């Protein structure tokens, strides 16, 4: 019986090799794989082949099998089913890690809307898993601590401070504020700053930074961010799309997998600040970023809102999320706080703070109020042209308010953000 099990392991290993080759990897490059991982890989491969043969009449169900034949052609299943899992648009095979743990982040190919992800403890057991063809595979897959967390922690040891920029409501200027915060930090020529855009389905940071036509480069050290200036770099999914107008229609596991690769594979070098822009709400991206960065340490989150109650309503939920997730709240910023005329500098209230605005909310919820940044039509113009509002209009009321916000953020982190401009 024992000998039979040893013999059975060979075909499974070949099936895992087939799976690895399907996404550009090879089991021969993974000597550390355990037997249970190879069996799991083989089960994924076998399941996908079975589904493909069942659903696609063009594929001959009599395709050669690797089982029970040590001399079988391990490429035969690939010839019968050339696309086990289609790679994501804009991401080449060379950019996808060949390890099993990375592969399962891209499965299933069409996950349920609220798929918890194959590595989740509720994988295959949650309500969203009902009816998924991979439910049984996910439920029986080996679970344990994410082995990539130590790799992420090691990669980010050279990053001194990590800041999340959050908002409960979309359209409050969170990404715009992120770019201005990045430029403000980078105004100090001795500071190295990075901006990571985790808004996978709505990446706007590259446009605002004037680098939307750029692409990332891959070296032995990892993915290289796109550098806007000598001390300000950006990483975004926008750089990986074949066309800038291509939609990224991904669900949780695929978005989470890309965020993990951003953190694990991007070679930032020595950074003083890494500013992470997130999508609105409290979704998969927020949970992923928090879980991946927990061991490396996050200084905290800056929450952006506008003065009106409809925005503050969602900000309260965002604050609750931070507290439940153990994320320190550096403070709240009231964006679009009044309109300042560029000519006469008169300020008008466009979005009235009917319930006291962010200042009152900060007081009620016992969190720091970082400041109020007024509206300025030149901010939108600077973003459209990919220019730095902070550098081009240093005397504007909005720019002066932003300097105060940066100073307050530094105080909350225990960092002196001031510098001698001379």
TrEMBL record:
GO MF, one annotated term: ATP binding
Main subcellular location of this protein, as a coarse class: cytoplasm
UniProt keywords, alphabetically: 4Fe-4S, ATP-binding, Cytoplasm, Iron, Iron-sulfur, Metal-binding, Nucleotide-binding
GO BP field: iron-sulfur cluster assembly
Subcellular locations according to the entry: Cytoplasm; Nucleus
Signal peptide location: none
Gene3D superfamilies, per database record: P-loop containing nucleotide triphosphate hydrolases
Annotated ATP binding sites: 168-175
InterPro entries reported for this sequence: Mrp-like_CS (IPR000808), Mrp/NBP35_ATP-bd (IPR019591), NUBP1/Nbp35 (IPR028601), P-loop_NTPase (IPR027417), YlxH/NBP35 (IPR033756)
Alphabetized HAMAP family for the sequence: Mrp_NBP35 (MF_02040), NUBP1 (MF_03038)
Described function: Component of the cytosolic iron-sulfur (Fe/S) protein assembly (CIA) machinery. Required for maturation of extramitochondrial Fe-S proteins. The NBP35-CFD1 heterotetramer forms a Fe-S scaffold complex, mediating the de novo assembly of an Fe-S cluster and its transfer to target apoproteins.
Family: Belongs to the Mrp/NBP35 ATP-binding proteins family. NUBP1/NBP35 subfamily.
Name listed for the protein in its UniProt record: Cytosolic Fe-S cluster assembly factor NBP35
Natural source organism: Aureobasidium pullulans (Black yeast)
Organism lineage string: Eukaryota, Fungi, Dikarya, Ascomycota, Pezizomycotina
